[in-house]
Amino acid sequence: MFELSLDVRRKETRFQSEPSRVIAKSYLPGGETRTKHIIKRILALSEEQSNQLLGDLIADFSRRHKNIKQIFKNNFAIIKQWIPENIVLSAEKKCLLGAYFTHEYSIEGAAFFNPSIVPHPDQSHLKEGCLRFILSFRSTGEGHISSIEFRSGILNKNNDFTFDPVSRLVETPDLIENPTYDKYVFSLKIEDMEAKHRISDEILQTLPDQFKLHQLQHSIQQELDKYPDPPPLLHETIEKLYWLAKSNYELKFKFDRRISERVIFPVSENESRGIEDARFVKFVGDDGDINYYATYTAYNGFNILPQLLETKDFFHFKIRTLNGKAVQNKGMALFPRKIGGKYMMISRQDGENMYIMASDNLHFWHQAKLLQEPKYPWEFIQIGNCGSPLETDAGWILLTHGVGAMRKYCIGAYLLDLEDPTKVIGQLPEPLLSPMENEREGYVPNVLYTCGAIIHNDEVIIPYSMSDTASGIAVVPLKQLLTRLQASAAAS
């Protein structure tokens, strides 16, 4: 076996969970009956009592959230349907009602892990050799619900890190209620869901090429009006159309919010139990246009749904479903550009081996080719990618994870052909990173994992998580890594 001797340096920086970082979200403690009981008790309070209670709440929570009164108002809107129509409420009473149906959620209460790193969209006013970056993390709180958080900073010419201050405040984005849908992509997904037939065609045919949710609702109502007694297939079709529409949405943060204040918390029913393992990549189109994409896994407690997140500025995000019979399992990683005119993605269809996919359409993936099976003892249980491939003149560096005995996760590396990445040129026979003694303990012991690295100043920068609890950063000389990968190819 080839002797591995790489200069892998772990930075002193550690990212730990911080329970004090909380969001204020809606809270419905029971069904409709219980909600009405709570409302009745609050309505029975005098205006003087209500104003005193509201004043105390604002004094108690205004330092923990930027606009706590607006949050109360938003959550009042959720429960106002259960307030008797004949009751006139003051603005203060509405806020108080909203406060009773609000609670704080510690987004990092359990863990802060599975990071990825990309260059920041703004590289202005930097010294030579420096790079401004964005780190993404999977943060997990009560009930093991996962969300996406961000940090930022600058790498200097020596690859030393300077991190921007982390705000104690954190906020979820506004949901854009009426996003735009592409009819062609929408109809392809309907076909993929085996819901394409005469009824769905009639609903979609009246829509423009780019349509809004209210237009879809209008077209559905027109179809319903045709039937005195709508058939079961129509109801089933409508349910699938709405399911698809609500799985594709847009989010927007306020432009005065620092990046550490932004958290993407589950929105759709498919994500109700978490947004897992976002693999961010800076994607450069054929025309030079830059988008940041992240594949992630939506989880509702029973099923997983691969999703694609898209942004240009990390303020405005579009969320779309990934479609096609090859879109299965977890952990897909998009190449940072097209190859041979096609989008390409590393995937894992069977939970054990690593595959590679090519497609003409970013949102649809129909075929997968086996790239590699577990080969070495440290990866006998399963292998998968650890983020998007990194482009070099010698080929694509693909960081991987391998699972061995005692469910120990290690990070490895492959070298793929630059023009035909379905060909594996080389593979490290031993792990690039294995859990050290001080990295083994945590929520899930003996696990090292990353969701994406970058190359800067001739080094590979690898943010990684340890035992699904905290995160750190490792640095590997690029030339050394390529030499070892090429030597492993020659040896085999």
Structure characterization notes:
With 492 residues, the protein is an alpha+beta fold. It folds into 3 domains: 9-18 and 112-174 and 249-491, 5 Propeller (Tachylectin-2, Chain A); 22-106, no CATH class; 180-247. 22% of the residues lie in helices and 34% in strands. It contains 9 helices and 29 strands. The protein has helices at residues 32-43, 47-61, 68-79, 91-100, 183-192, 198-205, 213-224, 232-247, 478-491, and strands spanning 9-15, 22-26, 102-106, 111-119, 131-140, 146-155, 161-163, 174-176, 180-182, 210-212, 249-252, 263-264, 275-284, 290-299, 304-311, 316-321, 333-334, 343-347, 354-359, 368-372, 382-385, 390-392, 395-403, 409-416, 424-427, 448-449, 454-456, 459-466, 470-477. Strands 8-11-16-15-14-13 form a 6-stranded antiparallel beta sheet. Strands 1, 26, 27, 28 and 29 form a 5-stranded antiparallel beta sheet that branches. Strands 4, 5, 6, 7 and 12 form a 5-stranded antiparallel beta sheet that branches. A hairpin with an 8-residue loop joins strand 17 (333-334) and strand 18. Helix 3 packs across helix 4. The termini are close together. 38% of the residues are buried.
